[in-house]
Write a structure and sequence with these properties.
Shape: flat
Largest sheet: 5 strands, parallel
Oligomer: single chain
Structural class: mainly alpha
Number of strands: 9
Number of helices: 48
Radius of gyration: 33 Å
Distance between the termini: 28 Å
Strand order of the largest sheet: 4-5-6-3-7
Strand content: under 5%
């Protein structure tokens, strides 16, 4: 996603690249000395959008751009209280230049100044001549434009007086050939008739989910967790609503627990029509807002007996609602909020009571309305909510289940029941991916009970809540004592706590924590399902525990197959269909462990199957962590476009839920892809934003990945000195790894830039220290190949070849195509310098194919240069492989293209990614020209192999 700087106060205009490009083009067309420069239409653009969509912000940016380019800006803003004053808007627009009216022809001058009451000698007939008035305005502007280009900016045109609108439309139709452009902004439902048909329209639509999330991230106190999700839902992409609701929650975080508070600015927009409505209409709107259902018969049955369908008409005429086919829809979610919050407590209480009486066939809704109408505690209603939470959980609605259980706890008269329900709510909130919500809930449990089992589960959930942020020490402070105490009496709980603790221990990288986890795990007896132990072994030390972990990984899969719950153990050539039948928890555990053990192909299949399962039953937290793990495995296996799509999903869900570790890590991996593809500036910017405010030394895995992304960006620009500093920073001064697992994968990168900066000796010391560590465990084939490459680069000239050959001879090396391609490139360079160009050419050709397919431009250019030096007339492919074409697609468009290529219909695609079939068709219309195809049957031919197969399609 792109974003452009612009608004006052140093804020950002987010997700408006198309709009900014059109406005900038219009301004540049004015300021350009080249008369052939194109402008949109005739130099008039009508900007439309809903209230709060950001029209004024875009106009502000256009004004700034124009002034910076030396364009004169005249501006007026419609005002409701002046809409009845003839020519008030025109006077506001022309007032700064009315002194030029003295140069107008007499009749035009008299007519123009006369409508403003500025000519004492005006003749009444001339003053009322609309043609002369409009012609005078046009002539004045033409005279002004003779001195330099002019931009006319008209905001809130729907509130301008008719005389001004008629004059502006007259001028707009006659701007051809004049260095004058006009921007007119109006609400989408209220575009003045004078500008509704003749002129090009620019619709400022609601922000998409990614842009809305980005705008929230840019707020001084960015919301997270439940509050963030509610803001995104309520604001529905309206920028003003996003900003105002974020500020309201920042002022009072507790306010988001029940209903988001409307600020004065939002209430002025969304509730302004309510006071004028008849009482019966307001009662119906309150019932509709409280019911949160679109079914008119239910709402009407809860209303007063004398209510009729005609009572809806005033709300329809005011544009607050729309009724179609017996269903009601509020024009915007915040209108619903405004209706509900403008009612008194007694009115809301009565509405919920009435609704509870009519929802007899829907026990979940009936329970909620009964709960909303309860004063104090009520065990009966609490039990109804708890039963409803169970139904929600079985449907995959974990957030709804957590909300119901939390409300049930509030209504519970017995503290023990309250504590039990809170712990269950915390568990559901964890599955929903809201760590801050989990922390809030578990913090209330300790004051309610002394039950060891309840307190232990609360500690487990509290530990998870901190584990997925960056508060690793706090997380381990909950989890390790819990595991230590439970090893004898509750070994399942102990393993659960240890497996949860392994994630923050891995990310923190501290050896003491990892060693303690292993010691406690050794005391836990072997369990029937011992998959947690697999993750503990792989996550604490994949080098020393590799043999045991691999045995568990393969044994677990073999056991599952024999039980009939899965197919054979997945291999490089197998379809992932049988894998999907395995239990979700096993898919995630095995997939994550396989990634750490460099069983990358298995990791892609297992995690891909897990993510497909989670998408069918959305759980944001699991989606974020699994999507990021899958993206890492896809990146390493060379499926860079697929990784990019997964990263977008991971970041979006992590940012919504407050999973800081993923919200930081996903952009860092995205920055790495940008760097490797040659966009160094964007990569540095992405890293800088991702790690802002993060204490990286406490998050060593992220620290190493950030250093690598920045090093790769420097390497892409040929800045080997900076690249060396970054790659060297992933090791300590004495050559030890900053992170026990992540650092060693950059030994070859360090060696490559060391030889170019004259620091080979220092790099050799780091490599030698790594060799001593590796001797204490079992090195994976992938890491062994990288170490071979590092030795080859740092070896004496006569000794390098055997290391190159050894690296390329490893039979599994093609599973990591980018790494093998770089080894081929290095070896080919070594051969060419020894006048063995014939041997170098096939290596260079093989490397070039990989780099082009991945879109790795810096590496493609370097390989082409080597081929030319080796006597081959080589140029870049007409298209740089499949990926550069795909880089034109947004992550959502890429997902739609994959599903369409797999044969899914628009309706089937929409059901999987929660879009309407019409919206899917719109996206395909945009996708086809980007990929150079004309039919969906051609999509399969242009997608890379890694993207053609879609699990479950």
């Amino acid at each position: 996603m792109k974003h452009s700087a612009g608004t006052d106060g140093g804020a950002w205009i987010v997700g408006r690249d198309r709009e900014l490009a059109l406005l900038t083009g219009l301004v540049k067309g004015l300021s350009s000395a080249d008369p052939a420069t194109e402008r949109p239409g005739t130099g008039v653009l009508v900007v439309t959008g809903s209230p709060g969509s950001g029209k004024s912000v875009l106009l502000d940016e256009a004004c700034r751009t124009a002034r910076a380019a030396g364009v004169r800006v005249l501006r007026c803003t419609g005002c409701e209280v002046e809409s009845g004053l003839p020519f008030a808007g025109l006077h506001q627009l022309l007032r700064p230049v009315l002194d030029l009216a003295e140069e107008l022809p007499a009749r035009q001058r008299t007519a123009l100044l006369g409508v403003f009451g500025l000519d004492e000698d005006v003749e009444p007939d001339n003053a009322q001549n609309p043609l002369l008035t409009s012609l005078g305005a046009l002539t004045l502007l033409s005279d002004l434009a003779a001195r330099g280009p002019v931009l006319l900016v008209v905001d809130d045109a729907h509130w301008l007086d008719v005389g001004t609108l008629d004059t502006l439309a007259f001028v707009a139709r006659r701007l051809e050939g004049e260095p004058v452009a006009m921007l007119v902004a109006a609400r989408d439902q209220s575009v003045p008739a004078q500008f509704a048909r003749e002129f090009p329209l620019l619709s400022v639509d609601p922000l998409d989910a990614a842009s809305a999330g980005r705008l929230l991230d840019l707020q001084p106190e960015a919301p997270a967790g439940r509050a963030r999700s509610r803001i995104l839902d309520e604001a529905a992409g309206v920028p003003l609503a996003l900003v105002e609701l974020a500020r309201a929650v920042a002022r009072d975080p507790r306010a988001a627990r029940d209903a988001l508070p409307l600020t004065d600015r939002l209430e002025a927009i969304f509730a302004q029509d309510l006071p004028a409505l008849p009482p019966a209409t307001r009662q119906l709107l309150l019932l509709a807002a409280a019911a949160e259902t679109a079914e008119l018969p239910l709402i009407l049955s809860a209303a007063a007996p004398d209510t009729t369908p005609a009572d809806w008409h005033p709300a329809e005429r005011a544009g607050l609602i729309r009724i179609e086919d017996g269903r009601l829809r509020f024009r915007h979610p915040l209108i619903r909020s405004a209706v509900y919050q403008s009612a008194t407590y007694a009115q809301r209480h009565a509405a919920h009571q009435s609704l509870a009486e009519v929802f007899t066939g829907d026990p979940d809704r009936r329970a909620w309305h009964r709960a909303a109408a309860v004063e104090g505690v009520d065990e009966g209603v609490a039990e109804e909510l708890e039963v409803g939470a169970g139904r929600a959980r079985r449907r995959g609605g974990y957030a709804a289940a957590a909300t119901a259980l939390e409300r049930a706890a509030q209504l519970s008269p017995d503290p023990a029941d309250r504590a039990r329900r809170l712990v269950r709510a915390a568990t559901m909130a964890m599955y929903a991916g809201h760590p801050r919500w989990v922390a809030e809930i578990t913090a209330r449990v300790t004051a309610l009970t002394e039950d060891p089992a309840v307190l232990a589960e609360a500690s487990l959930r509290a530990g998870w809540a901190l584990a997925v942020t960056t508060q690793f020490e706090g997380s381990l402070g909950y989890l390790l004592p819990l595991a230590d105490a439970a090893t004898d009496d509750n070994p399942v709980l102990a393993l659960d706590a240890l497996a949860t603790a392994t994630t923050p221990a891995y990310n923190a990288g501290e050896s003491a924590h990892r060693e303690k986890i292993v010691r406690i795990a050794e005391r836990v007896p072997v369990q029937e399902d011992d998959s947690d132990r697999l993750w503990i072994l792989a996550g604490t030390d994949p080098l020393r525990h590799r043999t045991r972990a691999l045995a568990l990984l393969h044994a677990d899969q073999d056991d599952t197959d024999q039980d009939g719950t899965g197919g054979g153990g997945p291999s490089a050539d197998e379809d992932s269909g049988p894998v999907r039948d395995r239990p979700l928890s096993q898919l995630i555990t095995w997939g994550a462990a396989a990634w750490l053990l460099d069983e990358t192909g298995e990791a892609v299949r297992l995690l891909g199957a897990a993510l497909e399962h989670l998408r069918r039953s959305p759980t944001a937290g699991a989606n974020a962590t699994v999507a990021q793990a899958l993206a890492l495995a896809q990146y390493e296996s060379g499926a860079w476009s697929a990784a990019r799509a997964c990263l977008d999903e991971a970041y979006r869900t992590a940012a919504e839920g407050g999973l800081e570790n993923v919200a930081i890590g996903a952009p860092i991996l995205g920055a790495t892809l940008l760097a490797l593809r040659g966009d160094a500036d964007a990569a540095r910017t992405a890293v800088r934003r991702a790690v802002h405010g993060v204490d990286l030394p406490t998050c060593r895995s992220l620290q190493v990945r950030a250093h690598y992304a920045l090093g790769a960006a420097a390497q892409a620009e040929g800045d080997h000195a900076t690249a060396y500093d970054r790659f060297r920073a992933v090791f300590t001064e004495d050559g030890e790894p900053v992170h026990f697992h992540a650092s060693d994968y950059h030994l070859a990168d360090l060696a490559a830039v060391a030889v170019r900066t004259g620091r080979a000796e220092e790099a050799r010391a780091v490599l030698d220290a790594a060799g001593r560590r590796h001797a204490e465990g079992e090195v994976s084939p992938r890491l062994a190949a990288l170490v071979d490459r590092a030795h080859a680069l740092l070896a004496e000239p006569d000794d390098a070849e055997r290391h190159f050959r050894q690296s390329l001879a490893r039979p599994t090396g093609d599973r990591w195509p980018f790494e093998r391609a770089r080894t081929r490139l290095d070896y080919a360079e070594w051969l060419r310098r020894r006048r063995r160009a014939t041997e170098a050419r096939p290596l260079l050709s093989a490397a070039l194919e990989v780099f082009e397919n991945l879109g790795a431009r810096p590496w493609t250019e370097r390989t082409l240069a080597e081929l030319r030096a080796a006597g081959v007339h080589a140029t870049a492919a007409a298209t740089s492989g499949q990926d550069p074409d795909l880089s034109e697609l947004t992550p959502q468009q890429l997902q739609i293209a994959r599903l369409a290529a797999a044969g899914l219909t628009n309706r089937e695609i929409g059901e999987r990614i929660f879009l309407s079939p019409r919206t899917v068709g719109f996206h395909l219309y945009r996708i086809f020209p980007k990929l150079g195809v004309t039919a969906r049957t051609q999509l399969r031919d242009v997608l890379p192999d890694a993207l053609r197969e879609v699990p479950g399609a």
